[in-house]
């Protein structure tokens, strides 16, 4: 190595050499700092946009799609049914939680990795205390699977008073709070006509407002009218706000009346688009499979005929925007305005409950699973005629007007924001990519400059008495 040392100069005694940033380097540092600030601001804007897009439960922005489950075969088939449901849906809604004391539907949903809107039955057949205890116990074991607990179903059109329903809701809330589960929403499910005519105290006692709406039972519109669903859903939202969730809608494929396979398929197709931006964070379609224990059209609302195959293409809810709603002829009348989707049998029933009358639209309890599996049929009355709707049908049609911007856009805000939600992240990504590329280019160029500057290196001897200057190209790399 001594042969390679070529001293060219000796410097006078002095302090160690230090390096001072040049003006060019200062500019580079300032440029990099500016890029970092711009990136931080962009990330903050993206985060704010994401939070805003999911701020309310009144739209279907939750991305979760559910189906109602009639538990009359649950004792023997719930695991098989829920596993099949999971192939197309993310959640189930039930009308009771315990089935004959043998099955806890919250446990079954968790086993299938499904979310659940659990029901607690309040009109006989299944003791309220037993069903409530099953709901609390199941929620304790699987709190993250429970979307909400609905106390009762269509009880007001079945003869119960608002005070009766409120008492049960308060009892359920107290039980969940005592179990440390006060964060689980508690509410009830009624028809849209019942909600619009009910005393406001009912909604005030609910964390969630479940509403059942069936254009099929409205003779003044087409059986597959998604516009009728939209108009009536909007009316309930206008009264109760973001706590409203669609808990039932559907159309039978067979069984007489206005039932039609083509109409049912059309309604399901339209519903998938509608539910992408409406109906709450997880709207529910009625129902999973046909109820073979029920006569007429009431037994054919299922998306599956046998619980193992789909009647027609059943795809996960798409992300397309909902169609523009058609305004309602007038304010929805009280309870009779919304024909009960299930006049005694269409909605599933807790085991062992009794038939409660022609006006009852809630699920009917069954005698026992073995009797149902053998083909026995519950004798139920025909649906009650709806004089109010017939009167509307005969009356002079009300001119159709474009719904107000407040009444429509507030329901479909997720659709209106979709453009911004996509554009801002794309622009931000491009800016960040350009910034990173620019920084990389500057660093590379600066490194090359430093290499050039260091062609002559300065070395100070151990005694710091002199400094030798060496030419880089004269040093061997070993």
Give a verbal description of the structure.
With 478 residues, this protein is of the alpha/beta class. It has a domain at 66-304: Alpha-Beta Barrel (TIM Barrel). It contains 14 helices and twelve strands. The strands form three sheets. The chain has an eight-stranded parallel β-sheet with strand order 9-8-7-6-5-2-1-10. Strands 3-4 form a two-stranded antiparallel ribbon. α1 (23-53) runs antiparallel to α14 and α2 (74-85) packs parallel to α3 (105-111). The longest helix is centred in the C-terminal third of the chain and has 36 residues, at 418-453. The model is unreliable at 1-19, 44-61, 317-424 and 453-478 (pLDDT under 50).
Salient structural properties:
globular; hydrolase; cell wall biogenesis/degradation; 11% strand; disordered N terminus; 478 residues; GH; TIM Barrel; 12 strands; cell membrane; glucan endo-1,3-beta-D-glucosidase activity
Estimate the mean pLDDT confidence.
72
Which value, in Å, is the CA radius of gyration?
34 Å
Total DSSP helices: 14
Largest sheet: 8 strands, parallel
Quaternary organisation of the protein chains: single chain
Could you give the count of β-strands?
A: 12
The span between the termini is 10 Å
Shape: globular
Spatially, the strands of the biggest sheet line up as: 9-8-7-6-5-2-1-10
Helix content: 25-40%
Per the CATH scheme, the topology name of the domain at 66-304 is TIM Barrel
Class by alpha and beta content: alpha/beta
């Amino acid at each position: 190595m001594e042969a390679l040392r070529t001293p060219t100069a000796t410097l006078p005694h002095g302090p160690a050499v230090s390096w001072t940033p040049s003006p060019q380097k200062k500019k580079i540092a300032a440029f990099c700092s500016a890029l970092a600030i711009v990136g931080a601001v962009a990330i903050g804007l993206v985060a704010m946009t994401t939070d805003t897009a999911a701020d309310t439960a009144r739209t279907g922005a939750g991305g979760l799609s559910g189906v109602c489950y009639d538990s009359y075969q649950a004792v023997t088939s719930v695991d098989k049914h829920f596993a099949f449901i999971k192939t197309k849906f993310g959640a189930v809604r039930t009308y009771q939680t315990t089935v004959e004391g043998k099955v806890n539907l919250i446990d079954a949903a968790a086993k299938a990795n499904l979310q659940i809107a659990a029901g607690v039955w309040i009109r006989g057949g299944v003791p309220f205390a037993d069903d409530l205890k099953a709901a609390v116990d199941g929620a304790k074991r699987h709190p993250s699977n429970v979307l909400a607990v609905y106390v009762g179903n269509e009880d007001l059109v079945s003869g119960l008073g608002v005070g009766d329903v409120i008492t049960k809701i308060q009892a359920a809330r107290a039980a969940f709070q005592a179990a440390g589960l006060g964060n689980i929403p508690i509410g009830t499910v009624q028809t849209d006509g019942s909600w619009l005519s009910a005393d406001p105290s009912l909604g005030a006692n609910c964390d969630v407002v479940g509403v059942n709406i069936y254009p099929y039972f409205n003779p003044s519109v087409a059986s597959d009218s998604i516009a009728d669903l939209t108009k009536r859903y909007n009316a309930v939202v206008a009264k109760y706000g973001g706590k409203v969730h669609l808990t039932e809608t559907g159309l039978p494929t067979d069984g007489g009346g206005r039932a039609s396979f083509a109409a049912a398929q059309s309604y399901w197709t339209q519903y998938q688009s509608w539910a992408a931006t409406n109906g709450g964070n997880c709207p529910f379609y009625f129902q999973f499979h046909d109820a073979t224990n029920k006569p007429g059209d009431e037994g054919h609302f299922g998306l599956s005929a046998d619980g193992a195959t789909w009647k027609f293409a059943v795809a996960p809810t798409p992300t397309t925007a909902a169609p523009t709603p058609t305004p309602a002829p007038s304010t929805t009348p009280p309870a009779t305005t919304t024909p009960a989707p299930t006049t005694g049998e269409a909605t599933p029933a807790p085991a062992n409950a009794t038939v409660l009358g022609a006006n009852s639209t809630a699920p009917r309890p069954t005698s026992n699973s073995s009797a149902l599996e053998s083909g026995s049929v519950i004798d139920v009355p025909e649906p009650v005629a709806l004089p109010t709707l017939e009167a509307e049908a005969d009356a002079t049609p009300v001119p159709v007007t474009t719904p107000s911007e407040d009444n429509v856009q507030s329901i479909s805000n997720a659709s209106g924001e979709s453009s911004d939600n996509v554009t801002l992240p794309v622009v931000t990504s491009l800016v960040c990519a350009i910034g990173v590329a620019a920084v990389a280019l500057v660093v590379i160029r600066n490194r090359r400059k430093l290499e050039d500057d260091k062609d002559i290196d300065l070395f100070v001897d151990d005694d710091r008495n002199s400094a030798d200057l060496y030419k880089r190209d004269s040093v061997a790399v070993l």
